[in-house]
Amino acid sequence: MDSVRRFLNSRLFLVIFALSVVVIDLLTSLTVGKDSSDVMLSGTPPVVMKQQLQTIAVLFLCVIDGLVLLFCDEIMPFLAAGLMTILFAVKSYDSYNLFMGRPMVFLSVPVFLFAIAALIVNFMRYYRKNRDIPFFSVGKSFWGIAAVAVAVTLGGLGSISFRDYISVAYYVVFLGVGMIGLYFVFRFRFRHRDEYDLSEKFAEVLIIVGLCAALLAAKSILFSLDDILRNRSVPEWKFRNNYSTFLMICMPAPLMFARRHRYPIFLSFIMFGVMSLLGSRSGLFLGAIEFGCCLLFIIVTDRENRNLYIIVTLACAAALIFLGGKVMTYFSSRYFGFNPIEQGEQRMRLIDASIRDFLDAPIFGQGLGFKGNYDIYTPKRGAMGWYHMMIPQIIGSMGLLGVIAYAFQFINRAYLAFVKSGYSAMVLFLCYGGLFLMSQTNPGEFCPFPYEMLAVMIFVIIETQKEKKTDRPENAVLEKKTDYEKTSDI
């Protein structure tokens, strides 16, 4: 049993799982290779077969996730496997009806219940082994989460009907008190984790998840390459923004090891390169900003390899100048002449709506369940009323209370990451920065799982690492390298 646990907690297991997800994606695409919307919504027999195979494959991966929880006390292997399962699952179109429609519901429900039961068993087993550790322990990042929980819970007070409020209970609960509960769980699990560097372990998970996402996206691009070249246009992949969000969270993670090795920045470049080909405007424009921040960060912090990274930066800039125009001809249908948001599209109309909603309910907003903008955008069944942008979502749904709460949370998180922190905390903040940027034009942090959960986890790791003062010497002084860096491997 110990050997099984060591294997599940190893890098080898994560690599095998990632490659398995890629192989499953290839196998389920044998009937229909292309993943574009026009193909996947056609309803032809090969497409239906592909959807059924994808659904069965997702449930199979969920069973594996549950087994990981049962056989391994650590949370990181499950986190990695769960995120890669989500990566594959978001390729399924009309997923609610696929999983909850007949006859698949009779298989889906038991599998989901098994995964939930395994999660509970894992937690209870860990709790029994560590009863001496206080469960309700508060750190610095807690107060921002608590402030947001208040704003989310009170959002719409005095303006939204009880029925509409309850209709989005999932978001109200898990963006509010649910994240407080997760905060305590993560803090309980991470506070006394001394067997390894938690920041590096988490970064390793993000690297493998990011490369898995890049491979899955590259497969869809390659399978549609003929159409791209012929039509000079990128197909519309429904998963493009979700994949871009994952890749932007994972892109800075290789920098955790950049002061010991030269190659990690090239892993970040691979993630950004694939993301820029998915047709996501947010991924291209905001991803370019984040990649630029990664380059600037590594140039500032790594004196020994600074010249190399300056050359890489200049090469990227030259490629953008000389090849950007030619490459962009293939994305003209998506990027509207380099404008990230086109005048008159839904997002522009939702910005106007958020201002109107704020003026109508300035203190508590209209609430997450507000349906007054369904004439502009109608969300899928069970989803809240999206504004598809973080700031409009805050002012429209939660009013002035939300503005104060989210501003306080961001300042609190930035202070935690940058004041008296080390190298690892700054890298993790860059990972969060990718999610924060993507949230400006997509739901992002308003999706409890996995995005806001990852944000909470990032700052619990930062605060617990600071409290234990486990940052290595090279993390405390960014400009100085130690003998450990010269001899260690990832």
Give the helix/strand layout.
Layout (H helix, E strand, L loop, with lengths): L1 H7 L2 H18 L8 H4 L4 H27 L4 H14 L5 H6 L4 H25 L12 H13 L7 H6 L1 H7 L1 H14 L7 H26 L1 H7 L8 H11 L13 H12 L5 H21 L4 H23 L3 H4 L10 H15 L29 H29 L4 H16 L9 H21 L4 H4 L6 H5 L3
Helix pairs in contact: 2-4, 2-5, 2-12, 4-5, 4-7, 5-12, 8-11, 8-20, 11-22, 12-14, 12-15, 14-15, 14-16, 14-21, 15-16, 16-17, 16-21, 19-20, 20-21, 21-22
Account of the 3D structure:
The chain has 490 residues and is an all-alpha fold. The chain is built from 24 helices and no strands. It has helices at residues 2-8, 11-28, 37-40, 45-71, 76-89, 95-100, 105-129, 142-154, 162-167, 169-175, 177-190, 198-223, 225-231, 240-250, 264-275, 281-301, 306-328, 332-335, 346-360, 390-418, 423-438, 448-468, 473-476, 483-487. Helix 2 packs antiparallel against helix 4 (45-71), helix 2 (11-28) packs parallel to helix 12 and helix 15 (264-275) packs antiparallel against helix 16 (281-301). The longest helix has 29 residues, at 390-418. The radius of gyration is 22 Å and the shape is globular. Mean pLDDT is 87; it is low at 470-490.
Low-confidence stretches: 470-490
Any idea what the shape is?
Answer: globular
What's the main sheet like? none
Helix content: 55-70%
Total count of helical runs of at least 4 residues: 24
Overall pLDDT: 87
β-strand percent reads under 5%
The structural class is mainly alpha
Order of helices and strands: HHHHHHHHHHHHHHHHHHHHHHHH
Number of strands: 0
Rg computed from alpha carbons, rounded to a whole number of angstroms: 22 Å
